[in-house]
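Structure representation:
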Amino acid sequence: MSTAQSPDDQPSVGELVRQASEHVSTLVRAEVELAKAELSDTVKRGGIGGGLLAAAGVIALFSVPFLFVVLAEVLVAIGLWRWLSYLIVWVLFLLVAGVLALIGRSQLKKVRKPERTLETVKDTAAWARHPTSA
């Protein structure tokens, strides 16, 4: 009994390459399908979680005016006139808005144009106009 195979029993190099290509293709398709399945579940859960967080934020935002009504009523309970209490709360709103506006303006002044991107775009445009010179 001989363990050596005859040359006729062995597949050709072309056949081996074809089989390897099929196996790699099947493996890649399977990996893509697995990734799709995992990502669809992850994205679905992430979307639901994000939506719930957004809803919680909206509800919290809607409750803020009640906080300021309570603050004004506390000032009334301390002994201030009601109109003065609400005026104080309104001025507090204006102060907070003014501080936020100043902070926002200072942040906007710090914004710089993308120098490197502009330079590469100019270079690309120049090359596109004259691709053979460079």
Summary: The chain has three helices and no strands. The helical segments are 13-78, 82-109, 115-129. Residues 13-78 form the longest helix (66 residues). The chain has one domain: 13-127.
